[in-house]
Amino acid sequence: MIPTQNYIEFKRKREFGDIITDTFKFLRQNFKMIFKILAKTAGIPFVFFVVAQVYYNTLTFSTAFIQSSNAFGAFEVTSILVSAIFMYVFLFLYFSFLFTGVSCIIKSYIINNGVIKETEAIDNIRAKIGGTLLAGIAKFFILALGYIICFIPGIYFSVPLYLLFAVFIFENKNVSDALGRTFDLVKEEWWITFFTMFLIGLIWYVASFVASLPALIYVWFQTFTSIQEISYTEPDEMFDIVSVIITSISAAIQYIMYVIVPIGASFVYYNLNERKHQTGTLERINSIGASDEEEDDMTNGSSNGNFGRL
């Protein structure tokens, strides 16, 4: 199949800035199909996460939680802890589906030379999600152990584990092999991978901050107004249902925008893989050789046909 006109070649070496540029270029060209597929796969855990977050925000803004003198304060604190656990569980599920979905979408894009086949991508997501959940759990415990032991090992582990889902999907490895492969890829390329990961995360953070500005402005305005009108014994009146809704919507937008992180991870993976193994270069050379052979066969066939007619 001939690549589409705007096809982005993943399997090639890229400089630091090219990874960032191509991440947004790929998202801009394919955002409709990306979000259509993600809505059908990551949509349910995302909705549950948003509901859990709304409930969590409602509790944290409630009178019983803010006023320690309230007789039901202890009960509310327990409810907040339980709701926080559910919220982060659904966030974990959403991230697992998000990284799996984006990787499978990109895999379909590469196989079909710039065409994302919806059914193919969704089937692949369903087949891989169990493994990525296990990979996500392994990643969580490794990072938790690294940060608990010492902060520096946690940072070191974060860089190779950033590529864990990409390796798992693109190379069809099991979880343990994928873990080993990530460290092999990052070896001697840790710093450039770290800076790329950091910049992608920073861009997401800035975009998320912009998305959260309406909520921040409303809460600041509400707090400032309430301080002038009410006593400090009634801090719960600083918050209302509008605060909860705006805050929850802003957070939902932030996590939708998080799609740039797994896209960036895919470009980083192929960049490192190409630097170490040059698989993309070899594939392009082989494809050129195959095309030349086909062209020669067609030429010879045409010549023989003409000779026969003569």
Structural class: mainly alpha
End-to-end Cα distance, whole Å, is 35 Å
**Which band does the percent of strand residues land in?**
under 5%
Task: Give the tally of structural domains.
Answer: 1
Which outline best applies? globular
The tally of helices reads 12
Count the strands? Answer: 0
Rounded Rg? 25 Å
Order of helices and strands: HHHHHHHHHHHH
- Approximate helicity band: over 70%
The biggest sheet amounts to: none
The pLDDT mean sits at 82
Low-confidence stretches: 306-310
Transmembrane segments: 37-56, 80-106, 154-170, 191-221, 241-270
Keywords: Membrane, Transmembrane, Transmembrane helix
Protein name: Membrane domain of glycerophosphoryl diester phosphodiesterase
Biased composition (Polar residues): 299-310
Record the SSE blueprint.
Layout: H1 16-41, H2 43-60, H3 63-66, H4 73-111, H5 118-149, H6 151-161, H7 164-170, H8 175-186, H9 190-229, H10 241-257, H11 260-277, H12 279-309
Region (Disordered): 288-310
Protein name: Membrane domain of glycerophosphoryl diester phosphodiesterase
Organism: Dokdonia pacifica
What does this protein look like?
This protein is mostly helical and 310 residues long. The chain has one domain. Helix content is 82%, strand content 0%. The protein has 12 helices and no strands. Helix 1 (16-41) packs across helix 5 (118-149). The two termini are 35 Å apart. Residues 288-310 are annotated as: Disordered. The chain crosses the membrane at residues 37-56, 80-106, 154-170, 191-221, 241-270.
